[in-house]
Amino acid sequence: MKGKEQGYTDKNFSQESILFYIQMLKDYVQREDVYPKVLPITENITNIFFYGIMGKGKEELDI
Fold first, then answer.
1. What does the pLDDT look like over 24-40, one tens digit per residue?
2. Could you tell me if residue 52 is left (phi over 0), alpha (psi between -120 and 50 degrees) or otherwise beta?
3. How far apart are CA 22 and CA 40, in angstroms?
């Protein structure tokens, strides 16, 4: 995968595990009881998704 080669995704993560994580997150966020809680923190959730809790910041990725 091009993202792995360029360092955007961890080389240790399989494509299957990444897709599973995305589907799991999508399914959870769309639950009626969760959606109102997520809405005010959408930007934070998006940043955690793309950069991780301790991952590289936008500045370090050179994008």
1. 999 999 999 998 999 89
2. left
3. 20
Residue tagged 């940043």 (tokens):
47
The answer to whether residues 11 and 19 touch, using CB atoms and an 8 Å cutoff, is no
Say which DSSP state 41 is in: G
pTM: 0.67
> Rounded to whole angstroms, how far apart are CA atoms 24 and 28?
6
The answer to the question of residue 2 being in a domain is: no
Look at residue 58 and tell me whether its pLDDT is greater than 90: no
Tell me which residue range forms the domain holding 28. Answer: 12-53
CA 6 to centroid of chain Cα atoms: 17
23 lies in some domain: yes
What are the φ and ψ backbone dihedral angles of 15, each rounded to 5 degrees?
A: -60, -40
